[in-house]
UniProtKB/TrEMBL annotation:
This is DUF998 domain-containing protein. Keywords: Membrane, Transmembrane, Transmembrane helix. The chain crosses the membrane at residues 12-30, 50-70, 82-100, 120-138, 150-171. The keyword Transmembrane applies. It comes from Dyadobacter fermentans. It comes from the Bacteria.
Length: 176
C-alpha cells in the first residue's frame, strides 16, 4: 500500500497529463474538421496528404492511449498484460507521430510557407512518455519507486529536449 501523499501526487500527475491529452485530442479534432483553408497561410501544409495521414494516425493512437489509460484507472482489474501492451504501444506511437510530423513537415517544401519554423518542443510526446513512466511499477517500496519515477522522468525528458535541440537546425525549426 502506497502512502497517501504519494497516491495523491500520482493521481494529480495522471489527471493533469490525462486532461492535457484530452484537450489536445479535442483541438486536433477541430483542426482536422476545419474545411475552409482559403485564408489560412498554412493551407498547403494542412492539405498535404502526408500531413493528413500523420494527423489521423496520431489522433487514433492518442485516442487509444487515452482510452486504455481511462480503462486502467476506472477498472484496475483490467490492468492485464494485453491492456498494458496497448497502452504502451499506443503511447509510443502517439509520441512518434508528433516527432514524425516535425520531421516530415520540415523536410518537404510546401510552396512559400515554411510553417515549421519556430515550433516548440513536442510537449505532448514528453507528457505521454512521462505518463508511461509513472504507470510502471518499479519497486515494492513506494518511496523508492517514486524516486525512481522522478529520476526517469527527468532523464527521459532531458534526453528528448537534447534530441530536439540537435534537430533544430537540421529540420529547419529555427526561428529567425
Amino acid at each position: 500500500m502506497k502512502p497517501i501523499p504519494l497516491q495523491v501526487a500520482e493521481l494529480i500527475l495522471v489527471g493533469w497529463i490525462g486532461l492535457t491529452i484530452l484537450l489536445i485530442i479535442v483541438f486536433d479534432l477541430s483542426d482536422l474538421s476545419e474545411a475552409r483553408f482559403e485564408d489560412d497561410p498554412f493551407s498547403a501544409y494542412r492539405r498535404d496528404p502526408g500531413i493528413i495521414r500523420i494527423n489521423i494516425a496520431s489522433l487514433l493512437s492518442r485516442v487509444v492511449f487515452a482510452g486504455s489509460l481511462v480503462l486502467m484507472r476506472i477498472k484496475p482489474q483490467y490492468r492485464e498484460r494485453f491492456l498494458l501492451y496497448v497502452f504502451f504501444l499506443s503511447g509510443l506511437a502517439a509520441s512518434f507521430f508528433q516527432w514524425y510530423e516535425l520531421y516530415y513537415g520540415s523536410t518537404f517544401y510546401y510552396g512559400e510557407v515554411r510553417d515549421k519554423q519556430g515550433l516548440a518542443f513536442p510537449l505532448l510526446a514528453s507528457a505521454i512518455v512521462t505518463l508511461m513512466i509513472w504507470e510502471c511499477t518499479y519497486s515494492s517500496h513506494p518511496l523508492w519507486a517514486w524516486r525512481l519515477k522522478i529520476v526517469l522522468t527527468v532523464l527521459v525528458n532531458v534526453g528528448l529536449y537534447l534530441i530536439w535541440l540537435s534537430v533544430l537546425e537540421a529540420w529547419n525549426l529555427v526561428t529567425h
